[in-house]
Amino acid sequence: MKKKQGAYGKIPTHSDSTFIQLLHVNEVYAAWKLLYWSPLNSNLDELLLDGNNEKGADGDGEGNEGGGNEGKEGEAPAGGGEEDAQKKKQSKMEDLSFCNTILTSVSRSFAAVIRQLPSIVLVDVMIFYLVLRALDTIEDDMTFFHKTTATDAMVDAGADAKGDATDSSEDITTNNTIANQAKVSALLSFHKTALTNPDWKLMGCGDGDERRLLEHFPQCHSIFLSLPSESRRIIMDITQRMACGMAEFVTKDLGQGTSDILEYNRYCHFVAGLVGEGLSRLFVSSGLESPSLACELHLSDQMGLFLQKTNIIRDYLEDYVDGRAFWPMEIWNKYSPNGDLGYFANPTTEEAKNAGLACLDELITDALELVPDCLAYLSKLQCVEIFRFCAIPQVMAIATLEKCYHNPNVFTGVVKIRKGTSCLLINSAVDLRGVHDIFHWFAMRIMSKAEGLQRQQQQKKKCSGSKSGDGGGGDLVSYDRTIEACRTILELTRVEDEKASSTTAAALVVASCVAGAAAVMAAQGGGGGPSKNMLTASTTTTTTVTAVAAAVALSFGSYFVGGKKKSKRMSSSMSAAEAEEENGDGDCSSSSKMQLLPAVKIMEQKKRQQHQ
Fold it and tell me: Of these residues, 211, 314, 433, 569, which one is catalytic?
Protein backbone atom coordinates (compact mmCIF):
# COMPACT_ATOMS: atom_id res chain seq x y z
CA MET A 1 0.00 0.00 0.00
CA LYS A 2 1.89 3.04 -1.25
CA LYS A 3 1.05 6.68 -0.83
CA LYS A 4 0.22 9.42 -3.29
CA GLN A 5 1.32 12.17 -0.96
CA GLY A 6 4.48 13.47 0.62
CA ALA A 7 7.29 13.21 -1.94
CA TYR A 8 5.05 11.47 -4.47
CA GLY A 9 5.20 13.33 -7.79
CA LYS A 10 8.27 15.34 -6.76
CA ILE A 11 10.71 12.60 -7.72
CA PRO A 12 11.45 11.94 -11.43
CA THR A 13 10.24 8.68 -12.96
CA HIS A 14 12.55 6.50 -15.05
CA SER A 15 10.68 4.62 -17.76
CA ASP A 16 11.47 3.49 -21.29
CA SER A 17 10.59 5.77 -24.19
CA THR A 18 7.72 5.09 -26.59
CA PHE A 19 10.27 4.17 -29.25
CA ILE A 20 11.82 1.50 -27.03
CA GLN A 21 8.35 0.22 -26.17
CA LEU A 22 7.40 -0.11 -29.84
CA LEU A 23 10.50 -2.20 -30.48
CA HIS A 24 9.06 -4.88 -28.17
CA VAL A 25 6.46 -6.16 -30.61
CA ASN A 26 5.29 -8.95 -28.31
CA GLU A 27 4.45 -6.39 -25.62
CA VAL A 28 2.61 -4.17 -28.11
CA TYR A 29 0.59 -7.21 -29.14
CA ALA A 30 -0.05 -8.05 -25.47
CA ALA A 31 -1.36 -4.52 -24.86
CA TRP A 32 -3.69 -4.78 -27.87
CA LYS A 33 -4.89 -8.19 -26.69
CA LEU A 34 -5.55 -6.94 -23.16
CA LEU A 35 -7.43 -3.89 -24.41
CA TYR A 36 -9.55 -5.43 -27.15
CA TRP A 37 -9.43 -9.22 -27.11
CA SER A 38 -9.28 -10.56 -23.57
CA PRO A 39 -9.46 -7.68 -21.06
CA LEU A 40 -9.78 -8.16 -17.32
CA ASN A 41 -13.56 -8.07 -16.98
CA SER A 42 -15.12 -6.03 -14.21
CA ASN A 43 -17.65 -8.03 -12.22
CA LEU A 44 -18.41 -4.87 -10.27
CA ASP A 45 -20.07 -3.39 -13.35
CA GLU A 46 -22.60 -6.22 -13.23
CA LEU A 47 -23.42 -5.41 -9.61
CA LEU A 48 -23.90 -1.75 -10.46
CA LEU A 49 -26.07 -2.61 -13.46
CA ASP A 50 -28.18 -4.98 -11.41
CA GLY A 51 -28.70 -2.11 -8.99
CA ASN A 52 -28.40 -4.44 -6.03
CA ASN A 53 -25.65 -6.02 -3.99
CA GLU A 54 -27.30 -9.42 -3.54
CA LYS A 55 -24.96 -10.49 -0.78
CA GLY A 56 -25.78 -7.43 1.27
CA ALA A 57 -29.49 -7.77 0.52
CA ASP A 58 -29.58 -11.42 1.53
CA GLY A 59 -27.56 -10.52 4.58
CA ASP A 60 -27.38 -12.65 7.66
CA GLY A 61 -29.49 -10.65 10.06
CA GLU A 62 -26.44 -8.85 11.46
CA GLY A 63 -26.04 -5.99 8.99
CA ASN A 64 -25.79 -3.37 11.71
CA GLU A 65 -23.61 -5.24 14.13
CA GLY A 66 -21.10 -3.11 15.96
CA GLY A 67 -23.06 0.12 16.41
CA GLY A 68 -24.04 0.84 12.80
CA ASN A 69 -26.97 2.88 11.52
CA GLU A 70 -29.73 0.64 12.82
CA GLY A 71 -31.46 3.61 14.47
CA LYS A 72 -31.87 5.47 11.20
CA GLU A 73 -33.07 2.44 9.29
CA GLY A 74 -35.26 1.38 12.20
CA GLU A 75 -37.39 4.52 11.90
CA ALA A 76 -39.09 3.19 8.77
CA PRO A 77 -42.36 1.37 9.45
CA ALA A 78 -42.38 -2.42 9.44
CA GLY A 79 -42.62 -3.70 5.91
CA GLY A 80 -41.05 -0.47 4.75
CA GLY A 81 -42.86 1.01 1.81
CA GLU A 82 -41.77 0.46 -1.72
CA GLU A 83 -40.70 4.07 -2.11
CA ASP A 84 -38.47 4.01 0.98
CA ALA A 85 -36.95 0.71 -0.10
CA GLN A 86 -36.23 2.14 -3.54
CA LYS A 87 -34.56 5.22 -2.04
CA LYS A 88 -32.36 3.07 0.19
CA LYS A 89 -31.47 0.89 -2.76
CA GLN A 90 -30.59 3.93 -4.86
CA SER A 91 -28.49 5.39 -2.06
CA LYS A 92 -26.65 2.08 -1.68
CA MET A 93 -25.88 1.98 -5.39
CA GLU A 94 -24.56 5.55 -5.26
CA ASP A 95 -22.28 4.57 -2.38
CA LEU A 96 -21.09 1.48 -4.27
CA SER A 97 -20.46 3.61 -7.35
CA PHE A 98 -18.37 6.03 -5.26
CA CYS A 99 -16.31 3.13 -3.90
CA ASN A 100 -15.75 1.89 -7.43
CA THR A 101 -14.63 5.34 -8.63
CA ILE A 102 -12.38 6.13 -5.67
CA LEU A 103 -10.78 2.67 -5.94
CA THR A 104 -9.51 3.53 -9.42
CA SER A 105 -8.34 6.94 -8.22
CA VAL A 106 -6.26 5.71 -5.29
CA SER A 107 -4.87 2.60 -6.98
CA ARG A 108 -5.11 1.91 -10.69
CA SER A 109 -2.89 -1.15 -10.34
CA PHE A 110 -5.03 -2.92 -7.74
CA ALA A 111 -8.39 -1.71 -9.08
CA ALA A 112 -8.30 -3.95 -12.16
CA VAL A 113 -7.40 -7.14 -10.28
CA ILE A 114 -9.98 -6.43 -7.56
CA ARG A 115 -12.78 -5.86 -10.09
CA GLN A 116 -12.17 -9.19 -11.85
CA LEU A 117 -12.80 -11.08 -8.60
CA PRO A 118 -16.04 -13.10 -8.31
CA SER A 119 -18.97 -10.97 -7.14
CA ILE A 120 -19.31 -13.09 -3.99
CA VAL A 121 -16.01 -11.71 -2.64
CA LEU A 122 -15.36 -8.64 -4.80
CA VAL A 123 -17.08 -6.00 -2.66
CA ASP A 124 -15.56 -7.42 0.52
CA VAL A 125 -12.03 -7.11 -0.89
CA MET A 126 -12.72 -3.66 -2.34
CA ILE A 127 -13.94 -2.30 1.01
CA PHE A 128 -11.06 -4.05 2.80
CA TYR A 129 -8.63 -2.25 0.49
CA LEU A 130 -10.32 1.16 0.85
CA VAL A 131 -10.47 0.92 4.65
CA LEU A 132 -6.76 0.10 4.83
CA ARG A 133 -5.98 2.81 2.29
CA ALA A 134 -7.76 5.34 4.51
CA LEU A 135 -5.74 4.13 7.51
CA ASP A 136 -2.56 4.29 5.42
CA THR A 137 -3.32 7.89 4.44
CA ILE A 138 -3.51 8.91 8.10
CA GLU A 139 -0.19 7.19 8.79
CA ASP A 140 1.55 8.74 5.76
CA ASP A 141 0.42 12.34 6.21
CA MET A 142 3.41 14.23 7.60
CA THR A 143 1.75 17.64 8.10
CA PHE A 144 -1.89 17.20 9.17
CA PHE A 145 -1.07 16.46 12.80
CA HIS A 146 1.51 19.23 13.15
CA LYS A 147 -0.86 21.65 14.84
CA THR A 148 -0.40 24.05 17.72
CA THR A 149 -1.81 21.66 20.28
CA ALA A 150 -2.36 17.93 20.42
CA THR A 151 -5.96 18.58 21.45
CA ASP A 152 -6.86 20.28 18.15
CA ALA A 153 -5.40 17.47 16.08
CA MET A 154 -7.07 14.76 18.16
CA VAL A 155 -10.48 16.40 18.03
CA ASP A 156 -10.21 16.76 14.24
CA ALA A 157 -9.30 13.07 14.02
CA GLY A 158 -12.35 12.04 16.05
CA ALA A 159 -10.24 10.60 18.84
CA ASP A 160 -10.73 11.03 22.56
CA ALA A 161 -8.09 13.60 23.51
CA LYS A 162 -9.04 14.08 27.16
CA GLY A 163 -6.14 13.56 29.47
CA ASP A 164 -3.71 12.81 26.65
CA ALA A 165 -3.49 16.48 25.62
CA THR A 166 -2.84 17.57 29.21
CA ASP A 167 -0.08 15.03 29.60
CA SER A 168 1.43 16.13 26.31
CA SER A 169 1.47 19.84 27.17
CA GLU A 170 3.08 19.12 30.51
CA ASP A 171 5.65 16.51 29.56
CA ILE A 172 6.36 17.06 25.87
CA THR A 173 7.70 20.27 24.41
CA THR A 174 8.45 19.47 20.81
CA ASN A 175 5.83 19.94 18.13
CA ASN A 176 6.84 16.71 16.39
CA THR A 177 6.20 14.66 19.51
CA ILE A 178 2.81 16.29 20.02
CA ALA A 179 1.87 15.64 16.39
CA ASN A 180 3.02 12.03 16.63
CA GLN A 181 0.97 11.53 19.76
CA ALA A 182 -2.09 12.87 17.95
CA LYS A 183 -1.45 10.58 15.00
CA VAL A 184 -1.02 7.54 17.26
CA SER A 185 -4.33 8.34 18.94
CA ALA A 186 -6.06 8.65 15.55
CA LEU A 187 -4.60 5.35 14.34
CA LEU A 188 -5.47 3.40 17.48
CA SER A 189 -9.06 4.67 17.49
CA PHE A 190 -9.64 4.25 13.74
CA HIS A 191 -11.31 0.83 13.91
CA LYS A 192 -13.70 2.08 16.60
CA THR A 193 -14.52 5.41 14.98
CA ALA A 194 -14.38 4.86 11.22
CA LEU A 195 -15.90 1.37 11.25
CA THR A 196 -18.67 1.88 13.80
CA ASN A 197 -19.77 5.50 13.35
CA PRO A 198 -21.70 5.93 10.06
CA ASP A 199 -21.01 9.68 10.06
CA TRP A 200 -17.25 9.51 10.69
CA LYS A 201 -15.00 11.36 8.26
CA LEU A 202 -11.69 13.19 8.41
CA MET A 203 -11.31 16.55 6.70
CA GLY A 204 -7.99 17.89 5.41
CA CYS A 205 -5.85 14.79 5.89
CA GLY A 206 -3.84 13.47 2.97
CA ASP A 207 -3.62 14.79 -0.57
CA GLY A 208 -5.71 14.43 -3.70
CA ASP A 209 -7.86 11.32 -3.98
CA GLU A 210 -6.73 9.94 -0.62
CA ARG A 211 -8.08 13.09 1.02
CA ARG A 212 -11.36 12.65 -0.87
CA LEU A 213 -11.59 9.06 0.38
CA LEU A 214 -11.35 10.21 4.01
CA GLU A 215 -13.73 13.11 3.50
CA HIS A 216 -16.38 10.84 1.94
CA PHE A 217 -15.72 7.84 4.15
CA PRO A 218 -19.41 7.48 5.20
CA GLN A 219 -20.10 6.10 1.72
CA CYS A 220 -17.51 3.37 2.28
CA HIS A 221 -18.96 2.72 5.72
CA SER A 222 -22.40 2.25 4.17
CA ILE A 223 -21.13 -0.57 1.97
CA PHE A 224 -19.07 -1.98 4.85
CA LEU A 225 -22.30 -2.42 6.82
CA SER A 226 -23.86 -4.41 3.98
CA LEU A 227 -21.13 -7.06 4.08
CA PRO A 228 -21.62 -10.42 5.83
CA SER A 229 -20.78 -10.32 9.52
CA GLU A 230 -17.72 -12.56 9.10
CA SER A 231 -16.26 -10.23 6.47
CA ARG A 232 -16.81 -7.25 8.75
CA ARG A 233 -15.13 -9.06 11.64
CA ILE A 234 -12.11 -9.89 9.47
CA ILE A 235 -11.77 -6.32 8.19
CA MET A 236 -12.09 -4.83 11.66
CA ASP A 237 -9.59 -7.29 13.16
CA ILE A 238 -6.91 -6.67 10.51
CA THR A 239 -7.51 -2.90 10.62
CA GLN A 240 -7.03 -2.80 14.40
CA ARG A 241 -3.85 -4.90 14.29
CA MET A 242 -2.39 -2.92 11.42
CA ALA A 243 -3.13 0.36 13.19
CA CYS A 244 -1.31 -0.89 16.30
CA GLY A 245 1.72 -1.75 14.17
CA MET A 246 1.66 1.60 12.41
CA ALA A 247 1.41 3.40 15.74
CA GLU A 248 4.52 1.57 16.89
CA PHE A 249 6.51 3.04 14.00
CA VAL A 250 5.04 6.56 14.09
CA THR A 251 7.10 7.35 17.18
CA LYS A 252 10.33 6.04 15.61
CA ASP A 253 12.74 8.30 13.76
CA LEU A 254 12.80 6.72 10.29
CA GLY A 255 14.88 9.41 8.63
CA GLN A 256 17.71 6.87 8.36
CA GLY A 257 15.51 3.85 7.75
CA THR A 258 14.71 0.94 10.04
CA SER A 259 17.37 -0.18 12.50
CA ASP A 260 17.84 -3.78 11.38
CA ILE A 261 16.37 -6.56 9.27
CA LEU A 262 14.08 -7.69 12.10
CA GLU A 263 12.52 -4.23 12.35
CA TYR A 264 12.35 -4.01 8.55
CA ASN A 265 10.45 -7.31 8.43
CA ARG A 266 8.23 -6.27 11.33
CA TYR A 267 7.16 -3.08 9.56
CA CYS A 268 6.45 -4.99 6.34
CA HIS A 269 4.41 -7.53 8.32
CA PHE A 270 2.16 -4.85 9.80
CA VAL A 271 1.50 -2.91 6.58
CA ALA A 272 1.44 -5.81 4.09
CA GLY A 273 1.72 -9.22 5.74
CA LEU A 274 -1.52 -8.66 7.64
CA VAL A 275 -3.21 -7.77 4.35
CA GLY A 276 -2.28 -11.22 3.05
CA GLU A 277 -3.79 -12.83 6.14
CA GLY A 278 -7.00 -10.81 5.83
CA LEU A 279 -7.39 -11.65 2.15
CA SER A 280 -6.92 -15.38 2.82
CA ARG A 281 -9.62 -15.25 5.48
CA LEU A 282 -11.98 -13.39 3.13
CA PHE A 283 -11.37 -15.94 0.37
CA VAL A 284 -12.14 -18.80 2.74
CA SER A 285 -15.18 -17.03 4.16
CA SER A 286 -16.61 -16.70 0.64
CA GLY A 287 -16.45 -20.48 0.20
CA LEU A 288 -14.23 -20.21 -2.87
CA GLU A 289 -11.06 -21.45 -1.17
CA SER A 290 -10.27 -24.32 1.17
CA PRO A 291 -10.46 -23.56 4.93
CA SER A 292 -6.83 -24.68 5.21
CA LEU A 293 -5.74 -21.56 3.30
CA ALA A 294 -6.62 -19.37 6.29
CA CYS A 295 -4.16 -21.39 8.37
CA GLU A 296 -1.23 -20.65 6.05
CA LEU A 297 -0.29 -17.54 8.01
CA HIS A 298 3.43 -17.75 7.19
CA LEU A 299 2.84 -18.05 3.45
CA SER A 300 0.28 -15.23 3.29
CA ASP A 301 2.65 -13.06 5.33
CA GLN A 302 5.52 -13.73 2.91
CA MET A 303 3.28 -12.82 -0.04
CA GLY A 304 2.71 -9.41 1.51
CA LEU A 305 6.37 -8.95 2.45
CA PHE A 306 7.48 -9.65 -1.12
CA LEU A 307 5.26 -6.89 -2.50
CA GLN A 308 6.08 -4.40 0.25
CA LYS A 309 9.84 -4.95 0.06
CA THR A 310 9.70 -4.44 -3.71
CA ASN A 311 7.96 -1.09 -3.19
CA ILE A 312 10.41 -0.04 -0.47
CA ILE A 313 13.41 -0.95 -2.64
CA ARG A 314 12.05 0.89 -5.68
CA ASP A 315 10.93 3.96 -3.71
CA TYR A 316 14.25 4.60 -1.94
CA LEU A 317 14.62 8.23 -3.05
CA GLU A 318 10.95 9.10 -2.66
CA ASP A 319 10.86 7.79 0.92
CA TYR A 320 14.21 9.33 1.85
CA VAL A 321 13.13 12.79 0.63
CA ASP A 322 9.87 12.33 2.55
CA GLY A 323 11.82 11.74 5.78
CA ARG A 324 10.42 8.23 6.35
CA ALA A 325 12.74 5.63 4.86
CA PHE A 326 12.67 1.88 5.45
CA TRP A 327 15.95 0.46 4.14
CA PRO A 328 17.46 -1.38 7.16
CA MET A 329 20.57 0.23 8.63
CA GLU A 330 21.98 -3.24 9.27
CA ILE A 331 22.41 -3.56 5.49
CA TRP A 332 22.99 -0.06 4.13
CA ASN A 333 25.46 0.96 6.85
CA LYS A 334 27.94 -1.60 5.46
CA TYR A 335 28.14 0.40 2.24
CA SER A 336 27.86 4.01 3.46
CA PRO A 337 31.26 5.34 4.64
CA ASN A 338 29.72 8.43 6.23
CA GLY A 339 26.94 6.52 8.03
CA ASP A 340 24.20 8.39 6.16
CA LEU A 341 21.43 6.73 4.13
CA GLY A 342 21.44 9.77 1.87
CA TYR A 343 24.98 8.93 0.74
CA PHE A 344 23.47 6.94 -2.14
CA ALA A 345 21.00 9.62 -3.28
CA ASN A 346 21.92 11.33 -6.57
CA PRO A 347 25.54 10.11 -6.32
CA THR A 348 28.24 12.37 -7.74
CA THR A 349 31.20 9.99 -7.38
CA GLU A 350 31.85 6.53 -8.77
CA GLU A 351 32.49 5.27 -5.24
CA ALA A 352 29.07 6.42 -4.02
CA LYS A 353 27.39 4.95 -7.10
CA ASN A 354 29.04 1.54 -6.67
CA ALA A 355 28.29 1.49 -2.95
CA GLY A 356 24.63 2.23 -3.59
CA LEU A 357 24.39 -0.48 -6.24
CA ALA A 358 25.96 -3.07 -3.93
CA CYS A 359 23.50 -2.16 -1.17
CA LEU A 360 20.59 -2.25 -3.63
CA ASP A 361 21.58 -5.69 -4.89
CA GLU A 362 21.73 -7.10 -1.36
CA LEU A 363 18.26 -5.78 -0.56
CA ILE A 364 16.87 -7.28 -3.77
CA THR A 365 18.47 -10.60 -2.84
CA ASP A 366 16.73 -10.43 0.54
CA ALA A 367 13.41 -10.01 -1.28
CA LEU A 368 14.13 -12.82 -3.77
CA GLU A 369 14.50 -15.27 -0.89
CA LEU A 370 10.75 -14.85 -0.23
CA VAL A 371 9.79 -16.18 -3.67
CA PRO A 372 9.57 -19.92 -2.77
CA ASP A 373 6.91 -19.19 -0.14
CA CYS A 374 5.02 -16.94 -2.57
CA LEU A 375 4.92 -19.73 -5.16
CA ALA A 376 3.85 -22.20 -2.47
CA TYR A 377 0.91 -19.95 -1.53
CA LEU A 378 -0.20 -19.60 -5.15
CA SER A 379 -0.08 -23.38 -5.58
CA LYS A 380 -2.74 -23.75 -2.86
CA LEU A 381 -5.39 -21.61 -4.61
CA GLN A 382 -8.26 -23.27 -6.46
CA CYS A 383 -10.34 -20.35 -7.82
CA VAL A 384 -8.95 -18.95 -11.07
CA GLU A 385 -10.12 -15.38 -10.41
CA ILE A 386 -8.58 -15.37 -6.93
CA PHE A 387 -5.42 -16.89 -8.38
CA ARG A 388 -5.09 -14.06 -10.91
CA PHE A 389 -5.81 -11.48 -8.20
CA CYS A 390 -2.92 -12.85 -6.14
CA ALA A 391 -0.56 -13.73 -8.99
CA ILE A 392 -0.59 -10.52 -11.03
CA PRO A 393 0.93 -8.28 -8.29
CA GLN A 394 3.54 -10.99 -7.62
CA VAL A 395 4.74 -11.19 -11.23
CA MET A 396 4.80 -7.38 -11.41
CA ALA A 397 7.01 -7.42 -8.31
CA ILE A 398 9.58 -9.87 -9.72
CA ALA A 399 9.69 -7.84 -12.96
CA THR A 400 10.27 -4.66 -10.93
CA LEU A 401 13.07 -6.28 -8.93
CA GLU A 402 14.77 -7.39 -12.15
CA LYS A 403 14.46 -3.86 -13.53
CA CYS A 404 15.92 -2.40 -10.32
CA TYR A 405 18.77 -4.91 -9.92
CA HIS A 406 22.09 -3.03 -10.19
CA ASN A 407 20.22 -0.08 -11.71
CA PRO A 408 21.67 3.35 -10.74
CA ASN A 409 18.38 5.02 -11.68
CA VAL A 410 16.93 3.82 -8.36
CA PHE A 411 19.03 6.53 -6.67
CA THR A 412 17.89 9.36 -8.94
CA GLY A 413 14.19 8.60 -9.32
CA VAL A 414 11.52 5.90 -9.39
CA VAL A 415 12.14 3.01 -11.79
CA LYS A 416 9.10 1.73 -13.70
CA ILE A 417 8.64 -1.33 -15.86
CA ARG A 418 7.19 -0.78 -19.33
CA LYS A 419 3.40 -0.72 -19.66
CA GLY A 420 3.74 -3.30 -22.40
CA THR A 421 5.62 -5.56 -19.99
CA SER A 422 2.76 -5.19 -17.51
CA CYS A 423 0.25 -6.20 -20.19
CA LEU A 424 2.34 -9.21 -21.14
CA LEU A 425 2.55 -10.29 -17.50
CA ILE A 426 -1.19 -9.90 -16.96
CA ASN A 427 -1.92 -12.01 -20.04
CA SER A 428 0.53 -14.71 -18.94
CA ALA A 429 -0.37 -15.00 -15.23
CA VAL A 430 -3.45 -17.14 -15.85
CA ASP A 431 -2.26 -20.32 -14.14
CA LEU A 432 0.62 -21.64 -12.06
CA ARG A 433 2.58 -22.76 -15.12
CA GLY A 434 2.38 -19.25 -16.58
CA VAL A 435 3.50 -17.72 -13.28
CA HIS A 436 6.37 -20.21 -13.05
CA ASP A 437 7.48 -19.24 -16.56
CA ILE A 438 7.54 -15.56 -15.58
CA PHE A 439 9.52 -16.12 -12.38
CA HIS A 440 11.88 -18.44 -14.24
CA TRP A 441 12.57 -15.81 -16.91
CA PHE A 442 13.27 -12.94 -14.52
CA ALA A 443 15.30 -15.13 -12.14
CA MET A 444 17.51 -16.12 -15.08
CA ARG A 445 18.03 -12.47 -15.98
CA ILE A 446 18.93 -11.48 -12.41
CA MET A 447 21.27 -14.45 -12.04
CA SER A 448 22.96 -13.56 -15.33
CA LYS A 449 23.57 -10.02 -14.08
CA ALA A 450 24.87 -11.28 -10.72
CA GLU A 451 27.24 -13.76 -12.34
CA GLY A 452 28.56 -11.05 -14.65
CA LEU A 453 29.11 -8.69 -11.72
CA GLN A 454 30.83 -11.42 -9.76
CA ARG A 455 33.21 -12.13 -12.64
CA GLN A 456 34.00 -8.43 -12.97
CA GLN A 457 34.69 -8.14 -9.27
CA GLN A 458 36.90 -11.23 -9.24
CA GLN A 459 38.84 -9.87 -12.20
CA LYS A 460 39.21 -6.48 -10.53
CA LYS A 461 40.38 -8.12 -7.31
CA LYS A 462 42.89 -10.21 -9.23
CA CYS A 463 44.29 -7.15 -11.01
CA SER A 464 44.40 -4.83 -8.00
CA GLY A 465 45.15 -7.41 -5.32
CA SER A 466 42.54 -5.76 -3.05
CA LYS A 467 40.25 -7.59 -0.70
CA SER A 468 36.71 -8.35 -1.78
CA GLY A 469 34.31 -5.61 -0.89
CA ASP A 470 36.90 -2.78 -0.85
CA GLY A 471 35.66 0.57 -2.11
CA GLY A 472 32.07 0.03 -1.12
CA GLY A 473 31.40 -2.23 -4.10
CA GLY A 474 29.92 -5.14 -2.20
CA ASP A 475 31.53 -8.51 -1.56
CA LEU A 476 31.44 -11.84 -3.36
CA VAL A 477 29.25 -13.38 -0.65
CA SER A 478 26.45 -10.99 -1.62
CA TYR A 479 26.54 -12.17 -5.24
CA ASP A 480 26.85 -15.81 -4.19
CA ARG A 481 23.70 -15.32 -2.15
CA THR A 482 21.92 -13.72 -5.11
CA ILE A 483 22.92 -16.54 -7.43
CA GLU A 484 21.80 -19.13 -4.88
CA ALA A 485 18.41 -17.41 -4.46
CA CYS A 486 17.94 -17.37 -8.24
CA ARG A 487 18.96 -21.02 -8.56
CA THR A 488 16.34 -21.96 -5.99
CA ILE A 489 13.68 -20.13 -8.02
CA LEU A 490 14.89 -21.76 -11.24
CA GLU A 491 14.69 -25.19 -9.64
CA LEU A 492 11.14 -24.57 -8.40
CA THR A 493 10.03 -23.28 -11.80
CA ARG A 494 12.20 -25.49 -14.01
CA VAL A 495 11.12 -25.96 -17.59
CA GLU A 496 9.47 -29.34 -18.05
CA ASP A 497 10.44 -29.59 -21.71
CA GLU A 498 14.20 -28.92 -21.87
CA LYS A 499 14.18 -29.50 -25.60
CA ALA A 500 11.68 -26.69 -26.09
CA SER A 501 13.90 -24.41 -24.01
CA SER A 502 16.94 -25.26 -26.14
CA THR A 503 14.93 -24.71 -29.31
CA THR A 504 13.91 -21.28 -28.07
CA ALA A 505 17.49 -20.28 -27.30
CA ALA A 506 18.69 -21.48 -30.71
CA ALA A 507 15.86 -19.68 -32.49
CA LEU A 508 16.65 -16.41 -30.73
CA VAL A 509 20.33 -16.66 -31.73
CA VAL A 510 19.36 -17.32 -35.35
CA ALA A 511 16.86 -14.45 -35.27
CA SER A 512 19.54 -12.12 -33.94
CA CYS A 513 22.04 -13.13 -36.66
CA VAL A 514 19.48 -12.82 -39.43
CA ALA A 515 18.39 -9.41 -38.16
CA GLY A 516 21.96 -8.15 -38.01
CA ALA A 517 22.80 -9.45 -41.48
CA ALA A 518 19.62 -8.00 -42.97
CA ALA A 519 20.29 -4.63 -41.39
CA VAL A 520 23.86 -4.45 -42.71
CA MET A 521 22.74 -5.49 -46.19
CA ALA A 522 20.01 -2.86 -46.15
CA ALA A 523 22.45 -0.18 -45.09
CA GLN A 524 24.97 -1.16 -47.79
CA GLY A 525 22.36 -1.61 -50.52
CA GLY A 526 22.68 0.33 -53.77
CA GLY A 527 25.74 -1.35 -55.25
CA GLY A 528 28.18 1.58 -55.41
CA GLY A 529 30.42 2.55 -52.55
CA PRO A 530 29.30 5.51 -50.45
CA SER A 531 30.84 8.91 -50.92
CA LYS A 532 32.88 10.48 -48.12
CA ASN A 533 30.00 12.82 -47.23
CA MET A 534 27.61 9.91 -46.93
CA LEU A 535 29.87 7.85 -44.65
CA THR A 536 28.60 9.26 -41.34
CA ALA A 537 24.96 9.02 -42.36
CA SER A 538 25.49 5.47 -43.60
CA THR A 539 27.08 4.43 -40.31
CA THR A 540 24.23 5.97 -38.30
CA THR A 541 21.65 4.34 -40.54
CA THR A 542 23.36 0.97 -40.20
CA THR A 543 23.34 1.23 -36.41
CA THR A 544 19.69 2.31 -36.27
CA VAL A 545 18.44 -0.25 -38.78
CA THR A 546 20.45 -2.99 -37.07
CA ALA A 547 18.93 -2.15 -33.68
CA VAL A 548 15.38 -1.96 -35.02
CA ALA A 549 15.66 -5.09 -37.18
CA ALA A 550 17.28 -7.09 -34.39
CA ALA A 551 14.69 -6.03 -31.84
CA VAL A 552 11.78 -6.82 -34.17
CA ALA A 553 13.25 -10.18 -35.17
CA LEU A 554 13.99 -11.08 -31.56
CA SER A 555 10.50 -10.08 -30.45
CA PHE A 556 8.79 -12.10 -33.16
CA GLY A 557 11.16 -15.03 -32.68
CA SER A 558 10.61 -14.99 -28.92
CA TYR A 559 6.84 -14.65 -29.29
CA PHE A 560 6.23 -17.37 -31.86
CA VAL A 561 8.78 -19.86 -30.55
CA GLY A 562 7.64 -19.11 -26.99
CA GLY A 563 4.10 -19.87 -28.11
CA LYS A 564 5.17 -23.29 -29.39
CA LYS A 565 7.02 -23.97 -26.15
CA LYS A 566 3.94 -22.99 -24.15
CA SER A 567 1.78 -25.32 -26.25
CA LYS A 568 4.19 -28.18 -25.58
CA ARG A 569 4.13 -27.41 -21.86
CA MET A 570 0.35 -27.29 -21.78
CA SER A 571 0.23 -30.62 -23.62
CA SER A 572 2.77 -32.07 -21.18
CA SER A 573 0.80 -30.76 -18.19
CA MET A 574 -2.45 -32.24 -19.49
CA SER A 575 -0.78 -35.61 -20.01
CA ALA A 576 0.63 -35.48 -16.48
CA ALA A 577 -2.78 -34.58 -15.08
CA GLU A 578 -4.42 -37.49 -16.92
CA ALA A 579 -1.76 -39.87 -15.64
CA GLU A 580 -2.28 -38.66 -12.06
CA GLU A 581 -6.04 -39.13 -12.39
CA GLU A 582 -5.48 -42.74 -13.41
CA ASN A 583 -2.82 -43.49 -10.82
CA GLY A 584 -4.31 -41.39 -8.03
CA ASP A 585 -0.93 -40.02 -7.05
CA GLY A 586 1.89 -37.89 -8.37
CA ASP A 587 4.41 -35.26 -7.44
CA CYS A 588 2.77 -32.84 -5.03
CA SER A 589 5.04 -30.03 -6.23
CA SER A 590 3.92 -30.41 -9.84
CA SER A 591 1.96 -27.45 -11.17
CA SER A 592 -0.32 -29.86 -13.06
CA LYS A 593 -1.59 -31.12 -9.69
CA MET A 594 -3.46 -27.85 -9.12
CA GLN A 595 -6.70 -27.48 -11.05
CA LEU A 596 -7.91 -23.91 -11.19
CA LEU A 597 -11.66 -23.50 -11.60
CA PRO A 598 -13.85 -20.44 -12.17
CA ALA A 599 -15.83 -19.33 -9.13
CA VAL A 600 -19.11 -20.34 -10.78
CA LYS A 601 -17.99 -23.96 -11.13
CA ILE A 602 -16.70 -24.06 -7.55
CA MET A 603 -20.06 -22.87 -6.24
CA GLU A 604 -21.90 -25.39 -8.44
CA GLN A 605 -19.75 -28.19 -7.03
CA LYS A 606 -20.50 -27.06 -3.48
CA LYS A 607 -24.24 -27.03 -4.19
CA ARG A 608 -24.10 -30.55 -5.63
CA GLN A 609 -22.17 -31.76 -2.59
CA GLN A 610 -24.76 -30.20 -0.26
CA HIS A 611 -27.64 -31.90 -2.12
CA GLN A 612 -25.85 -35.24 -1.96
Answer: 314
